[in-house]
Design goal:
Layout lengths: L12 H8 L7 H125 L5 H24 L1
Helix pairs in contact: 2-3
GO cellular component, one term: cell surface
Keywords: Coiled coil, Membrane, Transmembrane, Transmembrane helix
Protein name: BST-2
């Protein structure tokens, strides 16, 4: 198929204007008035648009300032919250360290308490032994006194019995105290 070429006949400017105005040829003064009206309309529209944009710009600037103020407030609050959080972390670490220290101290005191309990039990055992010894010695002393009284034939003085009794009590108390302190 062969390329189709179209040729249009050039149309003059006067013909275009005539067709726009419904077949009448406009006069130049009408074209000037129409041009001035278009320019005035453009200027008035531009002024109203600028005034509307000015109000919108003011509103936009005000909204931006409010947003910046709110952002700064939130940043300050975030900084304060972070500082409080840091302080709480430090306190928690201190509390944890204190708990560890107190736990170790409690374990030490428990061990010390067990040792003291064992020592108390040992001392109670020794006291029981000493009481038994004291009772045995007292019994032995009574027997000796009865023997002594019997051998003296009832003539013996009670002051020598009291002296022996006092001496025995002194010896036994000294032995008991020495055992307790050792």
């Amino acid at each position: 198929m062969a390329p189709v070429s179209c040729h249009y006949r050039p149309v003059s400017m006067d013909d275009k204007l005539t067709s726009v105005f419904g077949g009448h040829r406009p006069s130049w003064w009408m074209v000037i008035v129409l041009g001035v009206a278009v320019v005035i309309l453009f200027v008035v529209t531009s002024i109203f648009a600028a005034m509307a944009n000015r109000e919108a710009c003011k509103d936009g600037l005000l909204a931006e300032q409010k947003c910046q103020n709110f952002t700064h407030l939130l940043e300050r609050q975030l900084t304060q919250a972070q500082n409080v959080l840091l302080g709480m972390k430090i306190q928690a670490a201190t509390c944890n360290q204190t708990v560890v220290t107190l736990t170790a101290s409690l374990e030490t005191e428990k061990a010390h308490g067990h040792k003291q309990q064992e020592l108390v039990q040992q001392l109670q055992g020794e006291i029981e032994k000493l009481k038994q010894k004291l009772q045995d010695t007292t019994t032995e002393l009574e027997q000796l006194r009865k023997k002594n009284d019997a051998s003296e034939g009832g003539n013996g003085s009670t002051s020598s019995g009291n002296t022996i009794n006092s001496l025995a009590i002194y010896v036994l108390l000294t032995l008991s105290l020495g055992a307790l302190l050792a």
